[in-house]
Amino acid sequence: MASPLQFAYRTQKAIGVFDADPVYEALPGFTKPAEGNLRCCVYSGCGRYFAYATNEGVVIADASVGHVLTSLPIPAVYDLSFSPHGTYLSTWERPAKDENGDATKNLKIWRTIEELADDAEKQPIGKFVQKSANGWNLQYTEDERFCARIVTNEVQFYQSDDLGTVWNKLRVEGVSDFALAPGKNQNVAVFVPERKGHPASVKVFNVPQFTSPISQKTFFKADKVQLKWNQLGTALIVLAQTEVDKSNKSYYGETNMYLLSANGSFDARVTLDKEGPIHDVSWSPNSKEFGVVYGYMPAKTTIFNHRAVATHSFPLGPRNTIIFSPTGRFALVAGFGNLAGQIDVYDLEKDYRKITTIESGNPSVCTWSPDSRYILTATTSPRLRVDNGIKLWHVGGGIMYNEDMVELYNVIWRPVPAASLPNVDPLHPIPTPHPSALAYLGTVKTPSKPVGAYRPPGARGSSTPLHFKREDEGGVAHSVSNGVPQVGPNGFGRPRRQIPGAEFAEQARPSVPGAVVDDENLSKTALKNKKKRNKKAKEGQAGEGATTPNEGGLAPPRESADGRSPDRNHQRHHSRSQSRSNNLAVRTQNNHRSRSNVRQPTAQQAAPVIDAATAAAQSANAKKIRSLQKKIRAIEDLEMRHAGGEKLEDTQLKKIATKSSVIKELEALEKEGH
């Protein structure tokens, strides 16, 4: 029987080793360290050793059975790392100074297992001063023959068994980062950022032939880079990033991506067909293709071959992570961080078929198991201090194991060599879940139907305009103004905002000043306003025809040349008391004139006035009806709350008692309307 899958975890008070499928129990031979400041734990790349650091020192255990193999007497270790085959162990302590004020050598390299006399104490084989915690460890070649570290303007190489003397140096002015290639190709890539107007560059050298690079690429807009080799060490992805985006499109700088071959036969910038940042890039274990998640949300995920040619694109969605399974058959595309935590799993060997979507919550850790059958997700501190725990999912989408923990800091799989993995189909058969998974499913609430965004009453029941939809839902693509003000259809200011669900107003074409506007070119709103103006004009003409101008009547007095009425002009030249008496005399005189000279309106001229009065009465009745209907709805709402057991106030109970009178009043108004 093959050994079960295994993972280790570190919480605030404990470090544990757990056997997963099929036993789901803690490793029997492993003794948990005493509670204290447990800073780190790590597996060796071969999976044979497990090391962790406590206040007393560093402990190295056999990962298969849990027994302690050896310990190191260094109490203040903050990080650990093994060489590729587990032969050497590196420890990093916080920088400090000795009695003379010199920096202490806080980076130490130890042999993992060595024969010592009974009274002998284990000693490091190498010591270095390493102030920065970023990139603190030595980088080893795949065969562990050489290792390297970066210092000012050069990369120093050592023979792994002799760290006292520098074996060779790669001198590069301004070098800030480097990466040794895995596999049998002993190549090294170095990065030099932009400096004094000169472009940034990445150069690839063969170890130890440092006279000239075998491949190189120069480019601008690169303050820092990520150097990602494929597993064979034959190709290199350079993900370049600037601290500031000068085009003002992003707060997080600008990203670009380049692809270089190790032998210098190919180098190019990877062209992406969607505007926005590059969220993630990852090599497939087959070293022949890689995946990129890029663009403004909803982001696009595309698979490229080793010549940077796009071969397949997944559907758009809120995603920012892509991880290939260790066997290279599956790929998960997920959205973590401030996204919803959905994980889409695809089968790359079955025409990129989507297998399932996992609702993982809000994990901060997501890794494949070594056999590509399980996906481990974990919510860890300090990113989130609540809902910490571990979940184990089958590649088919079902949950297999769940455990809640208090302040979980880290969780890692035990590596398993590819030759030791069983040759079975990861999808079938589906394993039996642990009882904790069934208990977890019992506590998960059934997702309710999403209510959606608020829509005003006038926009309900209609389709959503495209500019309010996400791009993956059929909406328009994301666009960035880039500091340029948006201009409306008339050339001034921003375009008017649309009500969600409302139809777009048709923009009238600019016409020649003074020309007659055709009704067909008017929008619905403009045509409606035109009809209102015409109706008012007809009513005004009918009113003017009923009286003689300047002889009183219903029409107001005409304005003078300066825009003021005669009364107001008269008031400018007299005192307030005089103007009152004069105005009274004028009104009396006008009333006598109107009685003697006013003409009797005909039936046709009086019709508009009667219609207007009728319309006003109907409008008042309609307003009262709407008010009463609103009261009835409020009363019914109070009745439902009262029936549900809610305690109402006295005023609310009195309002319920008035329901019958309100209904009678509403019925009476409706009869009058008919």
Automatic annotation (TrEMBL):
Domain Translation initiation factor beta propellor-like span(s) in chain numbering: 217-411
What's a Gene Ontology MF term here? translation initiation factor activity
Alphabetically, which GO biological process terms does the record hold?
regulation of translation
Region (Disordered) residue ranges read 449-607
Family annotation (InterPro entries): TIF2A (IPR011387), TIF_beta_prop-like (IPR013979), WD40/YVTN_repeat-like_dom_sf (IPR015943)
Residue ranges of coiled coil = none
Q: Which UniProt keywords apply?
A: Initiation factor, Protein biosynthesis, Repeat, Translation regulation, WD repeat
Q: Which GO terms describe its cellular component?
A: cytosolic small ribosomal subunit
Where is the sequence biased in composition, kind Basic residues?
A: 527-536
Q: Where is the composition biased (Basic and acidic residues)?
A: 559-569
Q: Which Pfam families match?
A: eIF2A (PF08662)
Could you tell me what this protein does?
Answer: Functions in the early steps of protein synthesis of a small number of specific mRNAs. Acts by directing the binding of methionyl-tRNAi to 40S ribosomal subunits. In contrast to the eIF-2 complex, it binds methionyl-tRNAi to 40S subunits in a codon-dependent manner, whereas the eIF-2 complex binds methionyl-tRNAi to 40S subunits in a GTP-dependent manner.
Regarding protein family, the annotation reads: Belongs to the WD repeat EIF2A family.
What PANTHER family would the database entry show? EUKARYOTIC TRANSLATION INITIATION FACTOR 2A
**What name does UniProt use for this protein?**
Eukaryotic translation initiation factor 2A
Species source reads Pseudoneurospora amorphoporcata
